[in-house]
Give the backbone structure.
Amino acid sequence: MVGWSAIYSLDPQSGCFSLNSNCPVTLNGMNFISVLVLAFASSLFLGTAEPVQSADTAESVEHAGPILGDLTVDSVRIWLRTAVPRSSVIEIKDAGGEIVRRCPLQTTAESDHTGILKILDLTPGTRFTFSIDGKTNSDWWFRTRPASDDACRIAFGSCADEGDGSASVWRRMESDEVTALVLLGDTPYIDTTDLARQRARYREFSQPVDFARLVSHVPVYSTWDDHDFGRNDTDGNLPGKENSRQAVTEYRPNPSFGENGQGIYTSFRQGPVEVFLLDARWFARTEGGANDPTLLGAQQWAWLERSLAASTAPFKILACGMVFNGSVRPFKTDCWGVYLAEYERLIELIARVKAEGVVLVSGDVHWSRVIRHDTKGRLGYDLMEFVTSPIHERLIPAANPPHPGLIFSVGEINSFLLVDATTAGASSTLVARIRNAAGQDLHVEKITVPSGKAVSPR
């Protein structure tokens, strides 16, 4: 399907919304410009959605959201799902309670009553609150990134469910005041490509109070792994994978979803960090020979090369559900270690574009590990990989085999990765913590990038 976009503005005389060109109108003395509404239809329509009750009083799984999506220095995405297709109004207010945007949001049956509203031209570094059809909630707020964006605190996690243990992690992230949440996959567990079941599981996953509260003011970025893609340890030949992709585009407010209707890879920037969310499922084993199958696919490889080469971030985090090494439980077939040619291609690409400060983040295996990849001779620094899993309670002890670069390994339930990054003067520092729901740092690694050169930790 081909997506559409339109510019909406409000006529202050009639109070009605009209479709028109990109021209400003005035609302309560404020300049009202560029409200961009993107609509979902099938796999790539950003539709619009109706208001729901607060996280504490959600009536049923038919209602979901709001969920905050991509948040930048001057824009935000807000996602909703309603019980039936309908039209809603979202109002954005500043600290003084003045309305600075009033935006229409229309859900459709084609998008399973979901929608994403993107609002542009907001003031940098400013706290805003929002309401939905006049309803308010103390958790419905966001802060645009500062114009001088030199710090961030990003949480990464994988393998979560709707249980109390996962809820304890969402509460810890809330207490830690994270600036973004990255879901690395198996969030939720679905294990089918049936579209109705895919949609139902995303609705159910969004319902628990602590998750709903967190994501109503912390932007969420997502990729998938095997269980939300459709089946354990599967690859891109899975029948019905287009249904899985459609559900993701309907239920997760990413900045983008791959290219040309293929894959869901994307990227975003906060502070000194640019995160590249890789899709290690859609293209896996769909290209190349039997002895040299692709993992990322030609299209995604081209995107990654362009994006890495263009990045000005001191740190570039390459993140996916699938671990970047081959030390996994016996007979596991979905890891970068099984795609050795693709792993070599990744190292060669990083070297070719001279990307400094690259860090690897992965999940999936129900065990948390820190692994140093021996790449100093090729890159000038060793790549550090942080494996974070699980958010829920199910551990897999067999996922702790030896690795020559193993620095730390722990089976810790209800855990996640917390990344703090700051820029001060001529250097940037990244501190990565394997952390549990009780707020204990189980392991800490510090990486500094002075004058554009990556320095291995320790």
